[in-house]
């Protein structure tokens, strides 16, 4: 029996708010809520789809897309919104590296585009505020989890294919290059694939992190995997390295084989100003689910 009663109860309490309504957003690999407009989310496509950020209502209705001028989409895998000096900003992480072949990776930071009118026009564009080009201190890594700790002036990166996943830190405002990420912690408390997982196609990858986000109050971090999501709690005096080293609370999700429209979830975020979670998946018309956390 692949879905437990507890799994069903928790996920049945989730609200399907809508489906990704932009036909061009077929490999959603990151999303976060707007910090300037209510009921708006920003999302990105995986590599090969061009350097665009997509605007949608929380019900999935498309509000158009915005070109990020001067950026390239080699393998965009993460997006985070944050305030910097009173301005709402968006960070886009071009750090996917399935074959672990790239020496450097790029984080693009833009000021959140302003929505004027019903939707963004096809010519909408935003210029880079700054970029961070970095390498790892040890060897090459693939990563999909990223979040900004603006109060600490840091960017947190969580690797995907390492066992255990590794947490790296970068300065949000970088000094002169080259920038080398700092290894901060090993995240050891995400449960490994179960025996039943290993019997399923791709089951050995179930515990790999695909997204990371920090709660608006700075007390929680959520890590999404191909199986479940995990909430880590942090004491106010602790670092995120310490917080992500603790034992998390599991947020059960339906297993991929039991929910075809939710089988490759790679994007999760807290709703601005709350501990409510939004989760979506790759795939055309994937659902957007809203989950209330305790």
What's this model, at a glance?
The chain is mainly beta. It is 5% helix and 44% strand. The protein has helices at residues 5-12, 195-198, 240-243, and strands at 15-19, 28-33, 40-45, 52-57, 62-69, 76-84, 87-94, 105-111, 125-135, 143-149, 154-159, 166-171, 179-180, 182-186, 209-214, 220-225, 229-233, 249-251, 265-270, 277-281, 287-291.
Write the layout of secondary structure elements.
Layout: H1 5-12, E1 15-19, E2 28-33, E3 40-45, E4 52-57, E5 62-69, E6 76-84, E7 87-94, E8 105-111, E9 125-135, E10 143-149, E11 154-159, E12 166-171, E13 179-180, E14 182-186, H2 195-198, E15 209-214, E16 220-225, E17 229-233, H3 240-243, E18 249-251, E19 265-270, E20 277-281, E21 287-291
Parallel strand pairs: 5-9, 9-13
Antiparallel strand pairs: 1-21, 2-3, 3-4, 4-5, 6-7, 7-8, 8-9, 10-11, 11-12, 12-14, 15-16, 16-17, 17-18, 19-20, 20-21
What does this 3D model show about the protein?
With 294 residues, the protein is mostly beta strands. Helix content is 5%, strand content 44%. It contains 3 helices and 21 strands. The protein has helices spanning 5-12, 195-198, 240-243, and strands at 15-19, 28-33, 40-45, 52-57, 62-69, 76-84, 87-94, 105-111, 125-135, 143-149, 154-159, 166-171, 179-180, 182-186, 209-214, 220-225, 229-233, 249-251, 265-270, 277-281, 287-291. The strands form 4 sheets. Strands 2, 3, 4, 5, 6, 7, 8, 9 and 13 form a 9-stranded mixed beta sheet that branches. Strands 1-21-20-19 form a 4-stranded antiparallel beta sheet, with no helix packed on it. Strand 11 and strand 12 form a beta hairpin. The longest helix is centred in the first third of the chain and has 8 residues, at 5-12. The two termini are 27 Å apart.
């Amino acid at each position: 029996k692949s879905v437990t009663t507890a799994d069903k109860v928790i996920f049945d309490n989730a609200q399907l708010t809508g489906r990704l309504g932009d036909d061009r957003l077929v490999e959603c690999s990151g999303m976060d809520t707007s910090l300037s407009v209510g009921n708006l989310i920003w999302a990105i496509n995986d590599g090969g789809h061009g350097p665009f950020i997509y605007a949608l209502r929380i019900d999935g209705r498309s509000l158009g897309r915005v070109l990020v001028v001067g950026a390239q989409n080699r393998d965009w895998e993460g997006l985070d919104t944050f305030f910097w000096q009173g301005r709402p900003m968006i960070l886009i992480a071009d750090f996917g590296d399935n074959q672990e072949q790239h020496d450097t990776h790029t984080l693009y930071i833009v000021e959140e585009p302003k929505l004027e009118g019903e939707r963004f026009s096809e010519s909408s564009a935003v210029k880079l505020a700054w970029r961070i080009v970095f390498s790892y201190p040890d060897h090459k890594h693939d990563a999909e989890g990223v979040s900004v700790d603006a109060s600490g002036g840091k960017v947190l990166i969580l690797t995907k294919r390492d066992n255990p996943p590794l947490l790296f830190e970068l300065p949000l405002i970088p000094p002169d290059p080259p920038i080398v990420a700092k290894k901060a912690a090993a995240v050891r408390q995400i449960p490994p694939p179960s025996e039943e997982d290993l019997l399923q196609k791709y089951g050995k990858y179930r515990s790999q992190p695909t997204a990371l986000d920090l709660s608006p109050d700075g007390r929680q971090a959520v890590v999404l995997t191909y199986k479940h999501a995990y909430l880590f709690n942090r004491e106010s005096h602790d670092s995120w390295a310490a917080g992500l080293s603790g034992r998390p609370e599991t947020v059960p999700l339906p297993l991929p084989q039991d929910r075809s429209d939710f089988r490759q979830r790679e994007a999760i975020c807290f709703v601005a100003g709350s501990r409510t979670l939004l989760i979506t998946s790759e795939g055309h018309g994937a659902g957007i689910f809203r989950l209330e956390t305790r």
